[in-house]
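Budget justification aside, the reviewers requested a transparent look at the raw inputs and outputs of the sequence design task funded under Objective 1. We therefore reproduce one unedited record. The lines immediately below are the structure tokens for a 283-residue chain.
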């Protein structure tokens, strides 16, 4: 009897010791895995931060300074800084703030690609009476790469519908020696588009003004109902369409130009801010 009790007591003791050891091993294994994950996240944030920083620098070299490039630099600063000081920040920052930061990064990673992909679905009929080509940066008197791509899309459209009127719209902004509309007209004429097929709108300083002033010119030119399409960058298609409706233009079709990979991020960031502005202020 006593022998059985002793055996049972030893068994319980051994079970407890084994359980404690297993618990410690499990804890050590969990800590080790957590450490590996933290190291991977830190390296990932640093690498992504460096990439975003280089992207911002390159975008500055090929584009005029704008809100998108500034946002690109800020994003690079936050991601790279978080990566460098990952251990300290992940311990000191409130959990809700870290969660908000991660949510913002995931939202950017989803929304911007969707914006570009959805904007590449054209619906022009090539029978429109007019096309509005929205302005973009001019460097001195020369069209930027982004603006040249929009104009190339307009030229391609013109070859399929030579009766169309091409309305180029854009005033004179910082770092621009002439109006965007004038630079656009020159580019089109250099590529074989007759001046008689071009209308210039040279006052607009925003997309909403592009459409507002373009409508006034088209109403005056046609004097009756007309069909119209607009050409802009892929990421800009959605907001441009909404602003065209607000300006009172008839239902428009659209045709996109592809954005250079090097400026996708700043362009996407800028467009996200502009869409928020559109939702709040309707402009």
């Amino acid at each position: 009897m006593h022998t059985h009790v002793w055996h049972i007591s030893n068994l319980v003791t051994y079970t407890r010791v084994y359980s404690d050891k297993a618990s410690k091993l499990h804890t050590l294994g969990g800590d080790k895995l957590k450490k590996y994950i933290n190291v991977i996240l830190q390296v990932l944030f640093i690498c992504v931060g460096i990439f975003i920083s280089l992207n911002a620098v390159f975008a500055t070299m090929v584009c005029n300074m704008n809100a998108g490039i500034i946002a690109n630099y800020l994003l690079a600063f936050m991601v790279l800084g978080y990566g460098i000081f990952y251990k300290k920040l992940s311990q000191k920052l409130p959990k809700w703030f870290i969660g908000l930061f991660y949510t913002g990064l995931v939202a950017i990673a989803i929304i911007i690609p969707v914006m570009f992909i959805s904007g590449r679905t054209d619906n022009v009929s090539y029978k429109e009476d007019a096309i509005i080509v929205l302005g973009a940066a001019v460097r001195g008197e020369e069209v930027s790469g982004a603006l040249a791509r929009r104009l190339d899309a307009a030229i391609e459209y013109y070859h399929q519908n030579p009766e169309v009127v091409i309305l180029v719209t854009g005033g004179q902004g910082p770092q621009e020696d002439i109006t965007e509309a004038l630079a656009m007209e020159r580019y089109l004429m250099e590529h074989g588009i007759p001046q008689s097929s071009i209308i210039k709108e040279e006052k607009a300083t925003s997309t909403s003004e592009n459409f507002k002033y373009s409508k006034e010119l088209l109403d005056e030119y046609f004097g009756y109902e007309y069909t119209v399409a607009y050409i802009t960058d892929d990421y800009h298609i959605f907001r441009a369409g909404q602003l065209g409706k607000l300006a009172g233009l008839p239902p428009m079709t659209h045709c996109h130009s592809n954005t250079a990979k090097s400026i996708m991020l700043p362009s996407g960031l800028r467009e996200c801010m502009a869409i928020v502005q559109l939702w709040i202020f309707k402009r």
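DSSP finds nine helices and seven strands in the chain. The CA atoms of residues 113 and 126 lie 28 Å apart. Computational costs for records of this kind are itemized in the attached budget.
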